[in-house]
Amino acid sequence: MIKRICFTFSLAFCAWNLQAQTSVSPLDCVDHFYHGVASGDPLSDRVIIWTRITPDDFTTPVLVSYKMALDTAMTNVVTQGSMITDNSRDYTVKFDVDSLSPDTYYYYEFSGLGSQSVRGRTKTTPIGSVDSLRFAVVSCANLEAGYFNVYDVISQRNDVDAVLMLGDYIYEYEEGGYGQDPNLDRVFDPAHETITQDDYRMRYSVYHMDKSLQKLHQNYPWICVWDDHESANNSYTDGAENHNSGEGLWSDRKLDAQKAYFEWLPIRPKAQNNYEIYRKFEYGNLLDLFMVDTRLHGRDEQGVNESDPNRTMLGTDQYQWLTNELSTSSAQWKVLGNQVIFAPITVFGIPINGDAWDGYPAERDNVIQHINTNNVENFTVITGDVHTSWAFNLEDNGNNLGVEFVTPSVTSPGAPINVGGLLTIENPHIKFVELTQHGFFILDMNQQRIQADWFFIDQIDQVNTNYSWVKSLYSNSGDMQLNETTSASLPSSKYDVDLAPECPRIAQDVNAIAEFQDVELIGLYPNPAGNKINVHFATVSDIDHVITVCNLNGRVLIQQKAEVNPMNSTITILDLSELSSGTYMLKVGNMQSVTTSKFIKY
User: Fold this and answer.
1) Contact 165/225 with Cβ under 8 angstroms?
2) Where along the chain do the CATH 2.60.40.3080 domains lie?
């Protein structure tokens, strides 16, 4: 197994040297838990915790246990449990840990196959009276376009209750298919467009080995919704722009994408085999957060009969759920976590984005009228999707009914130049627009006002955590129109809580040097396999590896060279058409190091 070599004087070096690894190779000081840990969907008494264990044998189930404690040393354990995972869920592990206390930080870790994961940190939601809340809002992380410096910055700030991911967590394109920076060591695996469940699994696997992504998951609960690229570009209920008849049935692809999403992200299913993502989070009396699905649940096709009053973005049942929740909410702030821009944007009177709510004007008007008629106060929309930064007043016949904040992308490209100021001439409800920069915003709220602070990072083509504050806009409670302020919001001292440690809590003789092996098998897709199998492995070596398939008596049946990128994981496709049904041994390695596993051909 790949292990970090730590000496007595250099445990800190073990952790910080991870930052030098700038791409998606396995975490060196961890065995079996190479994809890190994550938490999400926090409630006042429970939270989802997640990991993925890499087995030694991809044909057998694995027992994985967890512990949750109030301290990083894991001495004050409050709960623990175990489950069996296997290839049917890609060896992912998810626990819905309950009986927790509200508004409390917890630390957790996993164990299995004689190894321990890194520790994670999470936080439950508050109940009752709440003074203030803060969230980091992110969207659109194209791995090929640049480094996830945004995630590093948010991790280092240590000043938010949760991370709100508004979609495009992954991208489905083939290698070089969209926004790739060819000068970087970051390429998509698999190299082809993701279509099947195994394709999506491999793409999530590569993303989850990114160090910046791992660190942000490790230290905060995430609340996520998908946008289109978790399935295919410009997707809707019955199809997508980036799906054609040669790629099979859309219904199959959509279901495969949804299954992989629920396997690889810390999201709570409503029921078994239920892949709906619209849901509500209560943060005491201060916030009701409504996360919706404007993509796969009810959306009609873009650009078709846009004047039809029955045209829907949400679908009838989700629309009814949202409007009922807005009407009955007693929280100070009602925030809609939404994928695409809600406010209208026109040029010469013509809407410019039919994929956004501008393509569904009747339903948008219905939502606005519902807010107006039912006196829903302090309605706020937060949005991703467009890779750029915006802020809007939401108006109806001159009346301000809400505000909208749009987060820039983590890495996905925006416009080549910032011409957003021209849009404000025709669209005076636009109060801020910036079209070129990458970053995030902090959503800060208290009983008096809600505020968005935009921060832009210096670059994405190198690992760099330099960033700057650019703009802050706020709306006072009951006023619901945007005002500019000259400073970003400041966190309270309640966020001064220890981050999770970088390396696992492993009892070991620190004077000893750990065994070192430079190749690790990450996954076999599919398994059981048909006539082809994708071998997903990672290595720290820069020499070519050999993949060998043997029968259980050791006879070599297939041998194939695999070119590797030591800074990236590698996918090699093997042709199994000449093999009969049965169990086989697969070996990956070079002259110095070999790893093995069994697989099944049906």
Assistant:
1) yes
2) 519-601
What residues does CATH 2.60.40.380 cover in the chain?
31-122
Contact 389, 407 (CB under 8 A): yes
Pairing state between β 467-476 and 439-446: unpaired
Token reading at 339: 């994928």
User: How confident is the model at residue 541, as a pLDDT?
Assistant: 78
The Cα-based distances of 296 to 246, 288, 457 in angstroms read 21, 23, 32
CATH topology of domain 519-601: Immunoglobulin-like (2.60.40)
Q: Which CATH class is domain 133-495?
A: alpha beta
For range 279-297, the mean pLDDT: 98
Contact 410, 144 (CB under 8 A): no
Query: At 142, which amino acid appears?
Result: N
Contacts of 208 (CB under 8 A, 6+ apart): 35, 36, 52, 214, 217, 264
Which residues, including other chains, have CB under 8 Å from residue 591's CB and lie 6 or more apart? Answer: none
Considering only 391-400, 408-417, 560-569, which range has the smallest mean pLDDT?
560-569
CB-based contact 403:392 (threshold 8 Å): yes
Q: Which of 287, 272, 292 is nearest to 367 (CA)?
A: 292
Coil, strand or helix: which one is 438?
A: coil
pLDDT tens, 295-325? 999 999 999 999 999 999 999 999 999 999 9
Query: At the topology level of CATH, where does 31-122 sit?
Result: Immunoglobulin-like (2.60.40)
Q: What is the pLDDT of residue 420?
A: 85
Q: What DSSP state is assigned to residue 426?
A: H
d(CA 584, CA 600): 6
In the structure encoding, which two tokens stand for residue 427, read together?
Answer: 């669209």
Three-state SS at 48: strand
Side-chain half-sphere of 536: how many Cα atoms within 13 Å? 27
Spatial separation of the C-alpha atoms in residues 367 and 403, rounded to whole Å: 14
- Rounded CA separation 119/163 (Å): 18
Q: Write the single-letter amino acid at 415.
A: A
